[in-house]
Amino acid sequence: RKFVLDFFFEEKQNLRFDVSSNLSKHDFLGQMFCTLGEIIGSTGSRLEKTLSGIPGKKCGCIVFSAEELSNCRDIATMQLCANKLDKKDFFGKSDPFLVFYRSNEDGTFTICHKTEVIKNNLNPVWQSFTLPVRALCNGDYDRTVKVDVFDWDRDGSHDFIGEFTTSYRELSRGQSQFNVYEVTSISPIVTLLSFKVESEYTFVDFIRGGTQLNFTVAIDFTASNGNPSQPTSLHYMSPYQMNAYAMALKAVGDIIQDYDSDKLFPAYGFGAKLPPDGKISHAFPLNSNMDDPNCVAIEGVLEAYFQSLRSVQLYGPTNFAPVINQVARCAADMTDGSQYFVLLMITDGVISDMDQTKEAVVNAAGLPMSIIIVGVGPAEFDAMEELDGDEVRVSSRGRSAERDIVQVTPSSGLVQWPSLW
User: Fold this and answer.
1) Are 284 and 278 in contact (CB under 8 A)?
2) Residue whose C-alpha is closest to residue 169's, from 194, 140, 148
3) What's the Rg (C-alpha) of the chain?
4) 211-416: same fold as 74-199?
5) Domain ranges of the chain
6) Residue 354: what pLDDT?
7) pTM, whole model, 2 decimals?
8) Where are the alpha helices (DSSP H) in 235-290?
9) How far apart are CA 169 and CA 229, in angstroms?
10) Looking at 221-271, which runs of residues are DSSP E strands?
11) What CATH code is assigned to 211-416?
12) CATH number for domain 74-199, candidates 2.60.40.150, 3.40.1010.20, 3.40.50.1370, 2.60.370.10
């Protein structure tokens, strides 16, 4: 049978399955534990696992297949023009713009798009625009779409010129006789010049298509974290609980590792003096193997992290650019869609090489790569928000990042950190 579940990439969703042979007697045949992410992240979203739970008996296997429920993910791009619109301005022509409305089940209308205003023109050609098809018709291709034509006024009391109705199905016919609309009882018309639809792919689409996540960790080993042997240090290895770095690593890593098939994670440190010569490094492998920085699963990363704390000297400064560039070089070699790189950087303070870091982020924004920066400890992380392009894209030397690839969050916000891909 099918089970419909809500999938949240940023959460670890634990599942348990008990198998019985008879509903009335509940003859137990075995059980299995997994996460929803394991099923989604398996090749073709198909997972086979062994049942257990009956001592000394082979319980067989259970097989899961996952698929995303279809929804309207199409994106529509269209362009319209008008001819012979009414003159509404006393000292000029008109300043026309269009307002698109989606009809609701109760007969009301909801605005879904406004075009730009074309000043002093009775024959305007508006710029093409893009909006989700679900915003236009909520997936109902025959639902009425109403379009009002207004003459813009500075005081907000825009003059109504006329209106027409159409539907997504009509619009999808493109430039034709079906998409020439009278907007009043006289001669003005609005014409659809072009219309195209593209699909917007989701995270699940890419995973089902075979894309693998490559998870890389970078940990701050600067002296501002405090002496690891002291309980006040953010790196203190208590026998009773994990420190702030280990908790942040495990919170993110436990989720992402479900989508990395080989469970081999490159792990680096930055800002420390390395034995035997005390050379400062901003991208040293935690496992001390320069040729192969991979650690096996999150537990392997934690083990390498604790080992590094015993051998290196915490120093500084806090430079981010070297490790970002290191991962970017790997991502640049894998641009065929088969791999996506996620860099987790855990730090306690202000970035020392902000200019170089911004340049590294701008350069990496065109690559299959995202960066999660987790701040631990009591320091202020406001300066790092400049790297998080939610409001304004990161820029460097006159260039802006192609997309937002950085998410900055305090360790306390890991329960709801957003996905970037």
Assistant:
1) no
2) 140
3) 28
4) no
5) 14-65, 74-199, 211-416
6) 95
7) 0.67
8) 244-256
9) 68
10) 264-270
11) 3.40.50.410
12) 2.60.40.150
- Cα 126 to chain centroid distance, Å, stands at 31
190 pairs with which residues across the strands? 82, 181
Contact predicate 331/342, CB 8 Å:
no
Rounded distance between C-alpha atoms, residue 245 and residue 306, angstroms:
10
DSSP 145-174: EEEEEEE--TTS-PEEEEEEEEEHHHHTT-
Distances (CA, A) of 53 to 35, 47, 56: 18, 19, 9
Tokens 């001669």, residue?
A: 187
Q: Are 340 and 332 in contact (CB under 8 A)?
A: no
Find the length of the chain. Answer: 421
Contact predicate 39/64, CB 8 Å:
yes
What pLDDT does 419 receive?
40
pLDDT category of residue 25 using cuts at 50, 70 and 90: low
Question: What DSSP element (H or E) covers 349?
Answer: none
Q: Which residues contact 271 (CB under 8 A, 6 or more apart)?
A: 220, 221, 222, 223, 280, 282, 314, 315, 316, 317, 318, 319
Q: What is the DSSP letter of 337?
A: S
Task: Give, in order, the Cα–Cα distances in Å from 421 to each of 201, 291, 312, 327, 369.
Answer: 10, 29, 35, 17, 9
Show the tokens assigned to 394: 């990161």
DSSP-assigned letter for residue 336: S
User: pLDDT tens digits, residue range 343-394?
Assistant: 999 999 889 999 999 999 999 999 999 999 999 988 777 778 889 877 788 9
**d(C-alpha 81, C-alpha 169), whole Å:** 19
CA distance 88 to 153: 10
Distance of CA 208 to the CA centre of its chain: 16
Q: Is 278 helix (H, G, I), strand (E, B) or coil?
A: coil
Joined together, the tokens standing for residue 151 give: 């003459």
